[in-house]
Every structure is written in structure tokens, then in C-alpha cells.
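If you are new to this repository, start here. Below is one unmodified record pulled from the training split, so you can see the exact layout before writing a loader.
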Amino acid sequence: MVAGEASGDMHAAALVRRLKQRDPAIRVTGIGGKALREAGMEITVDAARLAVVGIIEVITHWREIKGALEAMRRVLREEKPDLLVLVDYAEFNLKLAQTAKECGVPVLFYISPQVWAWRQKRVEKIRARVDMMAVVFPFEAEFYRQHDVPVRFVGHPLLHAIPPQAREANGPAEGIRTIGLFPGSRRSEIRRLLPAILGAAEILRRQRPALRFVLPVASTLDADDLREAAGGGLPDWIRLMDGKAREAIAASDVVITASGTATLEIALYGKPMVIVYRVAALTYAIVSRLLKIDHIGLCNIVAGERVVPELLQKDASPAGIAAEISRFLDDEAYYEATRNKLRTIRDQLGEEKIDMELDELVFEMLGQSAKT
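And here is the target side for that same chain:
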């Protein structure tokens, strides 16, 4: 199993726990982080070393990434596992899938690359290298069927992790408000985003001294990573919450978040947010020309409209972020209208329409592998 990022590590860990409940003797090895280690996977490479985003960022970390890829290729060639489960982390995992195909190891890809959003030609690689796609959005299943790729819609893991009543547990606060700060799960990401997010927090605190701020620490990071990205330290008025992202969401009235899976998780809690996104200028120049969608935040993509604001590149400035958060804090009608739109996202994820459970699919593929 390979999960190269914090969200993949969390979702893959839930899968490993279910597999081991059904068959305690099952052995899982590969790339992962803290969550997968705690779930019982043997870690070959720590995912924290590989968590980067952007074309330029990948190039600068290529030596470590290539080393991890070669380590996993040796595992496939020498150990010939019964199944390779790839979780998100598309570029790395599609390279590894090619090796698996050459070795005769069946491949299950869980949490699809966003081929429907950009670089759609990647679907040809997926068709050639992947035996089964396990997708988390209903529209992805239709996309792969149209391109003759075997696919099962297994439902989004957050629907199981976050009960519907969670979004009602903490509505607009009376008196003291709490702002969640979610700068991302990769070191390159927090270096680009955390200074601007902290700058926005400083502005908001000067305007509203009673505000509280919480900052969860992703499983692929530690507090020292955040302090380094902040330029040597974090203000003492920010409460760090190590490994408690969901508790931080639940405690927040409004959230400042990096683009990514976190936006969907925050949406399922019904919390208004401001999405921020920054990559190297060259990366953005390339990617922005290839995008085939109007939004970058998963919550906005699923909703099919700009439910919450997105601030990209230079627009993700401290003043710009603070202004958007202030609007949520000052305009109760706007706050409630946003919450009402966020409530519709769970229904749009198609919870009742899954083809099969993910662990069932894994054992089905293991059974097929055993027969061959």
C-alpha cells in the first residue's frame, strides 16, 4: 500500500483497520505516515519525506522521491505481493503501477487522480496500468466507465468518519469566536501558506482581541515544521492541536484552509471557510492553463458553485484572507447562507449509491489474485 500524503494516510489507515478486523493475519507493507503505522502497516518509507505539491517542488525533491520509488519497485519485484493498493499521490503511484503490471501484481487505485479536472490523457495510463479504480465521487465512476476503465464507486471515506449530526454540533458561537488555521500537510505547502495565514490571524486579532485561534498539526508534520515555516516560532496565542484536525474543525466557527481534502472535511462539518492556494509561479502558470474546472476547492467542485471564497497566489495575502474571514464574522446572513449551502454537499456525495464497500473490493481482488 502506498499513501504519500496526510489525507491518504488517514483514509488508508481506516482501510487497514477494517482489513485486519476481518483477517488478523493479513500483512500490509509500504509507504505511509503515523496513521498507517498505528493501524498496523509495516512502513517501508515514511510519507513525510515525500509530501510535496507542484511541478517545481517535485523537481527539487526528486532524489528522495526517486529513492522511495526504487525501494517500492524492489518490493514488487522481490516479494510479489498479492495486491498493490495505491492511495491518491497520482504521479508517483502511476509510475509504481507500471512496475506492478510488469511484475504481474494486480493494482487497486483508491481515491482517483483528478483526471476529470486536468490532464485527462492520464486516463490512458490508468487504463493500461490499473486493474480497478475505487472512486469516492459519483461523477468519477461515470467518467471512468466512459473511458472503459474498470471502476467501483465505494463512497467517500469522510461520510463514514463524520456523522451527519456533527455539522449541527457547533453553530455560530455567541461571544468568543474561534478561527481554525489549516495551512496544509506538506512542508512545501506550509512554507508557502503559513506566513500569510499567520499574517491574516494577526490582523484579525488586532481587530478583535477576543478571537481564539487553533492550528492542527497534520500527521505528516510536527510542531517544529510549523515553527520553521513560521520563521522561527508561533505566537503563544495560537493553540496547537497535534493530530486533532477534526477536533479543531469542530471547535472553529470559521476556517482558513489550504486547498485539498480538508476543504471537503470542513464542509461536512458545516463550517464556512476561506480556501487559500499558493505554488511556485511557474507551476501555477502551467497548471492554470490545463485546468478544465472553475474551482480548486473540493467542496466547491462537489457543490458545482463557489460556495466559499478561493484566494489564489497573490490574492492569498494576509489582508485579503482577513477581509474574507471578517465578512463571515460580521455578516450573520452571509454566514448562515454559506452553512446552508454546505449542508447540501453530503447529499451530493451519493452516500446511498455505492457499488460496494472498499474492504469487500480488496478481498475480492485478493481472491482473484489467489486463483491466478
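Two things worth knowing about this chain: The chain has two domains: 2-155+350-371, 164-348. The longest strand covers residues 212-217.
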